[in-house]
Amino acid sequence: MITAEQQKKLKATAEQMVAPGRGLLAADESTGTCEKKFTKAGIPCTEDTRRAYRELFFTSPEIGKYISGVILYDETIRQSASNGKRFVEILENAGVLPGIKVDQGLKEMEGSPNEKVTKGLDGLPERLKEYAQLGAKFAKWRAVITIGEGLPTDANLKQNAKDLAEYAKHCQEAGIVPIVEPEVLMDGSHDISACRDASERILTALFAALKKADVATDGIILKTNMVVPAKECAQKATPKEIAEATLGVFKKVLPKELVGQAFLSGGQSEEEATENLDAINKKGPLPWKMSFSYGRALQNTALKTWNGKAENVPAAQKAFLHRAKMNSLATLGKYSKAEENK
Ligand code: 5MM
């Protein structure tokens, strides 16, 4: 059990993470994911190129204007910039909260080989203790939900919800705000209603599991998907339809004590992720803050612009800050094409 004082602190951190006009940068790609991204861009993937890539983002001028926190990977939280300053210190000095991914990836679910569960509960309290000492103020755990023939199964939803709740409990006991991330994948050709149903089912299971595990709902941040059609679905949806479908689920399922939700981009283009977040916030006022915790939708253009070359850092930072600013406007429902093309 956490004390009322501890709960107050967790809530204050959660509020800081989704403060109006600010959101999160997901820079927690594991080495394997970095390798894939870098190889595709023709950039060698070494500890030093990964470090240089992260330095580009964390030292972007005035990053703290738009970014409230950065999710780091185990390797990254221990690294320093080329001037010798620890990344954690650089972020703190910029007013940005350092966070840490604590899940250890996915594995096949026993009894349902086409579905996944998340690894990382073993030894989690000890790892959280170390991450707190290294400066982490929040953590992240991602569960993925697959839509398909007969999927998701109730068993998979229940297992993922239970694991997310157990993780969240450990985080709060360590004084760390858990980002609770159930992601309904955009892979395949299912339509928006299939995503809506799966999203409603996992969120219902999740909030029941959080309650059962005694997790303080006002001391977490939810990070889930928008309700969207799959990448290969012929029937596209407008930002207004996506906003209505997403908020329709949220209004049914999210408790009012929840401080905020920070969306993942999940394979949407950079501009789609911004437009859709903006459409959601244009439907406000809402009981919860609707912010962003984007990986690809904040990084894609910056990565291409950087291309592994030191001389491209200022241009890549400019591209990143532009996306960060556009998403900042979207958290306020103030994004427009005119701002995009300024
Ligand atoms: C940054 O990507 C994270 C996944 O990395 P690994 O696959 O290497 O673990 C991911 O968890 C990310 O934080 C979220 O899915 C949101 O990222 P997107 O790119 O969907 O906005």
How many distinct helices? 13
CATH topology: TIM Barrel
Identify the CATH homologous superfamily. Answer: Aldolase class I
Any idea what the radius of gyration is? Answer: 19 Å
What is the topology, as strand order, of the major beta sheet?
8-7-6-3-2-1-10-9
Global outline: globular
Name the CATH architecture: Alpha-Beta Barrel
Q: How many distinct beta strands?
A: 10
State the CATH class.
Alpha Beta
State the distance separating the first and last CA atoms.
Answer: 50 Å
How is the topology of this model organized?
Blueprint (H helix, E strand, L loop, with lengths): L3 H14 L5 E4 L4 H11 L5 H12 L8 E6 L1 H4 L9 H7 L3 E5 L4 E4 L2 E7 L5 H11 L3 E8 L8 H20 L3 E8 L7 H21 L8 E2 L16 H15 L6 E4 L6 H13 L6 E6 L1 H11 L6 H19 L5 H4 L2
Parallel strand pairs: 1-2, 1-10, 2-3, 3-6, 6-7, 7-8, 9-10
Antiparallel strand pairs: 4-5
The protein binds 2-O-methyl-1,6-di-O-phosphono-D-mannitol (5MM).
Q: What can you see in these coordinates?
A:
- The chain is of the alpha/beta class and 342 residues long.
- The chain has a single domain, classed as Aldolase class I (TIM Barrel).
- The protein has 13 helices and 10 strands.
- It has helices spanning 4-17, 31-41, 47-58, 74-77, 87-93, 124-134, 154-173, 192-212, 239-253, 270-282, 296-306, 313-331, 337-340; strands at residues 23-26, 67-72, 97-101, 106-109, 112-118, 138-145, 177-184, 221-222, 260-263, 289-294.
- The strands form 2 sheets. An 8-stranded parallel β-sheet has the order 8-7-6-3-2-1-10-9.
- Helix 8 packs parallel to helix 9, helix 9 packs across helix 10 and helix 11 (296-306) packs antiparallel against helix 12.
- The mean pLDDT is 98.
- The structure holds 2-O-methyl-1,6-di-O-phosphono-D-mannitol (5MM).
